[in-house]
Amino acid sequence: MQALQNRLEQLENATGSEMWEILKASESDLRQDLSQLNLLKEDKEKHIKKALEEIKSKKEDLKAQRSAIESLKIQYKEHIEAVKREFEGNGLDMQKVIGIFQKILKDSLSEKKATVIATVDSTVITSKSTWQDLKTPVKSIISTISGDSEVRKMLETRLEAFHDACEKIFISNLWSLFQNQGIPLKTLEQNENSQKFLEKIREILEFSTDLDLISPGNHQKSIDNLVQISISHLENLCIDMIDKERGGDADFEWILESGKNWARNLKLVLEKGVETMGTLKIEQKSGFSAIFDAKFVEFIGNLTRRFLKMNIKDPLIFSKMSILLRRFEENCEFDLSNSDIFEPIYEPEFISKWILFEVELYTVAMNRLLSCSSNCFLPLESISIGNPKNSQWAAEITVFVEQWITRLDSNIQNFGNLEIQMTFYECIHALLSDLCFRIHSISKRLESEATWSNDVYLVMNSIWELKRIVKTQTLTWPISSFELERAYENEWDRLCGMIIDYLNEDLLDRLEISICSNYGDEKIKTMNSTFYHILKCLNNVTIKASRPSRSVLMNLLVEELFKNLQMRFEKWKSVCSMTVLGHFYNQIYSNLVPELDNLEKEGHWTRGNPARSEMCRLDALMKVAANCDTSGELVRTAFRSIDEEQVLKMLGELGIHTTSDHAFLDFQILAENWHKIQDKF
Q: Which intervals of the chain form a coiled coil (predicted)?
């Protein structure tokens, strides 16, 4: 199909003969595509045929099942009729027999109901009761209602109340048992009579599973109930510690770590107790570990909520908690693969507060930085990033933004909820976009101040670094930063344009006015001053522009400068005297070009092809125009960097074989033909 698509694109604007050649050349590819299409067609037909056969088979199965159901209905009716005939053959009325059985069933239900009520009423439950006191009544009730849903339904309210009262006793007794043995603060191995303790645990846990049989459906959740009741004791202990300790996140981390160790002790005790229980099926026992791990996550979540509510006024509490929970998760031996311990933070009460805190912190810090006018753009000499050759620009504002993004991104990466991540990233994007707008406003205000010629580089350096930060830090984000990068790039281009305008408009426009209106001496004086300021500006760039942006800025300035000089030179060469033109040649070949070469040689910038091309074009124009000077001075100046041997070599490449004994004439011949070789430059 790709070959066909390519051919169609080529045929769009082709002539008749070209069409034939294209079709002829693509014949083999088209045949291959046709072969692939046939194979796909055959494969699809096979799948359709197979699907139709499966549908047909399922229809037949469904038809057979319907027939079987109808047959069973008929058999049932026939069975009823047969029973009825048998009753009548024995002289019995079927309806009377059914009535007798219903009365017997009703009496049986009433008897069971009375038995259960009597057992419940005779069982006195007080705060001093033990699970041993309740064991016999519970078993009696279970044996009475076992397999009888009608009795359960009739006594639902009474059974629930009895179950809840017994469960409170069970919980109290279990916690007392744990407390007496120092569980979960101690490990099982630290108990002297661990086997006797485990036997007690087994007995009380079996009572719990019996108790669960009283409430319909509860027995399937016996392990859940056991773990929930046990771990809630540990949770209460840790929450009491959180309420008493107000030392901050360090204390909370200790509570989490302690809670994890205590939970591990508790898990071991319960696991050994469950293993020895005879009232649970093997499948229920095998699911213990997964259930405990899930309840452990809920336990950590409840502690996190409690701590966040207590410290909600701390602006950095969420950032601290993000780091703390990630560290806890990395060192946790419980299975957290199917859970997210950050879940409590996602709740609207907390996540909205976190976002608000971050925006406020950013706003306060940024207002402080930007209120100092250009000071926040000053380089921080004490900070060195990278080696001297590729070091990055570091100003107070760039350091703050990078640290702020790094901190937030590190926190956000901890989240397992992509929607919450996206909310934070969108918020960061909005704040960075606003920062670009604020920097624009500040730079507009600074333009009117006397220090702008220096401040412009500070602002440009900071913007360039901020663009780099945005590009590198947002690389893995699930949101495009193209528009954001473009905003910073546009602002940098705007400021760069101001320097370009200074060179091409302020300086060269003033020089052109002088050339077109003043006397010769005044023109030369203005020209000297103009090129002095051009060189000063370019030297300032190599000193004040940050190293990462220096070459980019220099190349743009040089490219635009030499483009402008080309246009102006075409005009000036016809209105200037040879003396003035000679001074222009001297400024280009003796000052401007050598200085640029020297700056490049010293490693201050790396010349790009566009800048090099524009320099060569001006060079070519000036070399060709040099022959207008009959004295030959312009030729000597234009070819100052080329020796006689190079001249003869170039002329030879052009097919010009000079017989002159005068080197100067060879230079003039080369100047006349320079337009033929300017592309080589």
A: 34-82
